[in-house]
């Protein structure tokens, strides 16, 4: 069962019982925290000799700082966050590692009803591609509206993100830039915790946001917004949350770290089983976790979204993937793509040392060491060319062959981690 965040007294660290297997993990109320909740509630952690205490937090900054300070042994963490922490971006540097991916996808961009209605009135909005919510068409319509409003002397809209070093920020920037918009000058990007996005829309303090579920669906249910673009449409099976912990903790407690990876692996497999969707939705809906109607969570878990208030839910391919297609493997290419976006948007200088620091955060070696003894299948490679797979594709694995899912970007770009310099340079030309 989860607990509200306890505030340790001066000098007290909540992670002092790790040696006995008692671990304290932080999480944010999002559907993609499911592997942590399942590991704690369905007995997977106990089978590995772990006693998990889950502590709910409001903001990602709190999650980052409480892991860095040793209040939490590990946490549900944004994919770029342990990289940023290791690079010393936004706070003093603390080396972190990510030995496990908690899943792929699960985010969306929600825009206000007024803004989306104006987009639908443009030439780009009067297309089948726009009505299918294809990212390029939706982006073009947004650019037309914003340029018209700019010409009329209006202030740029405010779009909220959950943290500066988040996949949400980088996905939103990537999409806006592809539509010809400058994310630093033609919109205002503001940080809000995920759970405050809906109120921000209702109060008209923001014009849209990029966040994980259930917050997009709750905005639609409140009649405050339209889900304009999903992460799965921007980058099919793109990386999202990871298990983040201090490198010092992983070095000091290797057995507990491996046990936690195994517990989360089994929990993610359980969460991905369609037979468990109803039970998982009820579990996550508990006030201790998401405190959200189970029906909305269940719709997310089934990969269906209601995009426009008052309309029926529709299927979204690969909206949220917990376990299939090696979803839990911490690909080095995912870490380096996040690093490349940090460089692109001026968050860090590109140097060999910085790239090497980023490369060392995601830890496929820890993943393999934890899971090989239980017979789990594992990719042979630790990195891949992102965006190259257009359909489920068999690749070499520890047990022979395993299937990876389609991973294309909406604009057709590829990211080859062996061509990092060229990829970064391509955005400067």
Entry keywords:
429 residues; 38% helix; alpha/beta; 6-stranded mixed sheet; globular; 5-stranded mixed sheet
Structural overview:
- By secondary structure, the protein is α/β, with parallel strands linked by helices.
- The chain has helices at 34-41, 44-47, 60-68, 81-87, 113-120, 128-131, 135-151, 167-178, 197-202, 215-221, 231-234, 247-252, 254-272, 277-285, 294-301, 332-344, 352-359, 364-371, 420-426; strands at 2-3, 22-27, 51-56, 74-78, 96-101, 104-105, 107-112, 158-161, 188-191, 208-212, 225-230, 241-246, 304-305, 314-315, 320-321, 393-397, 400-404.
- The strands form five sheets. A six-stranded mixed beta sheet has the order 1-3-2-4-12-5, sandwiched between helices.
- Strand 13 (304-305) and strand 14 (314-315) form a beta hairpin.
- Mean pLDDT is 95; it is low at 5-12.
E-strand count: 17
Q: Assess the beta-strand content as a share of residues.
A: 15-25%
The strands making up the biggest β-sheet line up spatially as: 1-3-2-4-12-5
Arithmetic mean pLDDT: 95
Q: How many helices in DSSP terms? A: 19
Radius of gyration, in Å, reads 21 Å
Helix content: 25-40%
Largest sheet: 6 strands, mixed
Structural class assignment:
alpha/beta
Question: How is the secondary structure organized here?
Answer:
Blueprint: E1 2-3, E2 22-27, H1 34-41, H2 44-47, E3 51-56, H3 60-68, E4 74-78, H4 81-87, E5 96-101, E6 104-105, E7 107-112, H5 113-120, H6 128-131, H7 135-151, E8 158-161, H8 167-178, E9 188-191, H9 197-202, E10 208-212, H10 215-221, E11 225-230, H11 231-234, E12 241-246, H12 247-252, H13 254-272, H14 277-285, H15 294-301, E13 304-305, E14 314-315, E15 320-321, H16 332-344, H17 352-359, H18 364-371, E16 393-397, E17 400-404, H19 420-426
Parallel strand pairs: 1-3, 2-3, 2-4, 8-9, 8-10
Antiparallel strand pairs: 4-12, 5-12, 6-15, 7-10, 7-11, 13-14, 16-17
């Amino acid at each position: 069962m989860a607990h509200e965040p306890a505030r340790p007294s001066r000098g007290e660290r909540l992670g002092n019982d790790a040696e006995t297997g008692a671990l304290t993990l932080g999480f944010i109320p999002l559907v993609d925290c499911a592997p942590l909740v399942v590991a704690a509630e369905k007995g997977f952690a106990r089978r590995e000799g772990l006693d998990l205490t889950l502590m709910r937090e409001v903001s990602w900054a709190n999650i980052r700082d409480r892991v860095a300070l040793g209040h939490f042994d590990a946490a549900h963490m944004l994919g770029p966050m342990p990289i940023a922490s290791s690079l010393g971006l936004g706070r003093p540097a603390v080396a972190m590692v990510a030995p496990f991916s908690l899943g792929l996808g699960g985010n969306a961009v929600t825009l206000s009803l007024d803004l989306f209605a104006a987009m639908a009135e443009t030439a780009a909005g009067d297309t089948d591609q726009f009505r299918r919510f294809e990212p390029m068409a939706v982006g073009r319509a947004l650019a037309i509206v914003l340029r018209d409003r700019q010409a009329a002397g209006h202030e740029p809209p405010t779009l909220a993100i959950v943290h500066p070093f988040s996949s949400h920020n980088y996905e939103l920037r990537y999409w806006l830039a592809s539509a010809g918009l400058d994310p630093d000058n033609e919109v205002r990007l503001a940080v809000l915790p995920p759970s405050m996005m809906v109120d921000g829309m209702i109060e008209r303090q923001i014009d849209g946001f990029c966040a994980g579920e259930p917050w997009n669906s709750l905005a639609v249910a409140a009649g405050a917004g339209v889900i304009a673009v999903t992460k799965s449409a921007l980058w099919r099976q793109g990386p999202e949350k990871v298990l983040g912990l201090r490198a010092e903790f992983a070095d000091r407690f290797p057995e507990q770290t491996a046990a936690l990876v195994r517990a989360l692996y089994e929990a993610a497999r359980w969460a991905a089983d369609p037979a468990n969707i109803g039970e998982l939705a009820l579990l996550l809906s508990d006030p201790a976790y998401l405190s959200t109607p189970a029906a909305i969570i269940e719709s997310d878990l089934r990969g269906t979204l209601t995009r426009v208030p008052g309309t029926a839910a529709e299927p979204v391919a690969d909206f949220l993937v917990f376990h299939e297609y090696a979803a839990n493997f911490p690909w080095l290419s995912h870490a380096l793509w996040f690093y490349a976006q940090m460089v692109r948007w001026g968050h860090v200088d590109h140097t060999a040392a910085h790239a090497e620091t980023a490369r060392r955060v995601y830890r496929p070696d820890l993943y393999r060491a934890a899971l090989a003894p239980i017979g789990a299948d594992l990719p042979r490679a630790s990195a891949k060319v992102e965006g190259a797979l257009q359909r489920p594709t068999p690749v070499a694995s520890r047990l022979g062959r395993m299937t990876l899912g389609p991973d294309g970007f909406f604009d057709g770009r590829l990211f080859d981690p062996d061509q990092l310099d060229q990829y970064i340079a391509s955005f400067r030309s």
